[in-house]
Amino acid sequence: MPYSKPKNSQEKEVMKTARKKKVSEDEIPIDELKKGSLKRQLKLGAKAEPLKIRELQKLKKVEDGQETEFRGKMIKMTPLLKKRVNLGITLMRLPKK
Fold this sequence. Notes:
Helix content: 40-55%
Strand order of the largest sheet: 1-2
Largest sheet: 2 strands, antiparallel
Shape: elongated
Number of strands: 2
Radius of gyration: 20 Å
Number of helices: 4
Strand content: 5-15%
Structural class: mainly alpha
Distance between the termini: 38 Å
Order of helices and strands: HHHEEH
């Protein structure tokens, strides 16, 4: 089916919404992420040394509901923390521009 231009504004809106990526219930949209939320949840200050992938990989192995020690502080693993750790690992592996 060849592409045809939308004829009115209602058709344009339908096309725009059709192009938007579908987000499932457990995903957090990129535009709603809070800067520094992982560090805040890990009880680290803004001036703390940068996180390393190796540290985050150790946290990723901890099961939900378990407590673990991270840089001398006790942290309880929650589903949200697990998602943030996973996202942090993914973003750290992306090539830098």
